[in-house]
Amino acid sequence: MPMSLADLECRTPKWSSDGKHIAFAGRDAAGRRIYVVGADGGNLRRLTSGTDEERDPAWSPDGKRIAFSLGSVGNRDIAVAELGKAGVERITTGPGDDRSLAWSRNGKRLAFARLADKALDIHVVDATGGEPVRLTQGASVNVAPVWSPDGKRLAFATDREFSWRVYLMGADGADPTRAADAVAEEPAWSPDGKLLAYAGTPEARSARGPLPVGICVLDLASGTAQRLKSGARGRSPDWSPDGTRIVLTRDFRLCVLDVAADAEVPFE
Fold first, then answer.
1. Residue 29 CB partners (closer than 8 Å, separation 6+)
2. Backbone angles phi, psi at 175, to 5 degrees
3. How confident is the model at residue 63, as a pLDDT?
4. Domain positions in the chain
């Protein structure tokens, strides 16, 4: 068991609904597992005692459970673990690779990306299990879904324009539209629904190539995006429940930003 965050490569952090904890995927010599840490960087612990690979955590709205991707490359399922209890419940099973998931705000559904038959598309499934419903189709890659606070829309990242963009669509997959011209991936909806944080650049770019990484914030009403100077080289942003902070990873380390001040705040 790693003794500190410094012992782990950290990815995809997610804030709990009460703002007191952060779940993330941490990798050490034994593999990648889901961990939970206090919002102040203390009380690091593993979510499960399993030996399978774990990644992409997503908190339930009540803060009692965490969904995550479980299994080896090419055969990952969505599983749910309840905090403080042993064992996991598999929500999806069978062939395919399920990843980058998000829990709906009412707790009833999970959105995720599934790689199957050489296609990577957004699906939704009941949080208790059942047959997933595919929302996107086509030759493009569609990943990283996140629900709007009112549950009516999903934001997701796609390469359908030969460069990464964030798109919005209805919760049923209807009317997919580009959120902005900015090159963007890993969207995160602010609690008030007015902003999207993402990893990318404020500017548009048409050519394929390495993504200029940094945390930006998009105003959905105006369509303008602004780069956070304190978010340089940042990935996988997620808003605190009060909308004042963003947790992210930088060089596989967890960082927390004060959005209004555009400054990193002490964490570890």
1. none
2. 55, 55
3. 95
4. 5-265
Write out the DSSP string of 111-139.
EEEEEETTEEEEEEEETT----EE---SS
- List the CATH code of the domain at 5-265: 2.120.10.30
- Whether this prediction's pTM lies above 0.90 is answered by yes
When pLDDT is cut at 50, 70 and 90, the band that residue 75 belongs to is: confident
Give CA–CA dist 35/20, Å, rounded. Answer: 14
Burial class from Cβ neighbours inside 10 Å (0-12, 13-18, 19+) for residue 73 reads: exposed
Does 209 have pLDDT greater than 60?
no
Residues comprising the chain, all counted: 268
Say how many C-beta atoms besides its own lie within 10 A of residue 84's C-beta.
6
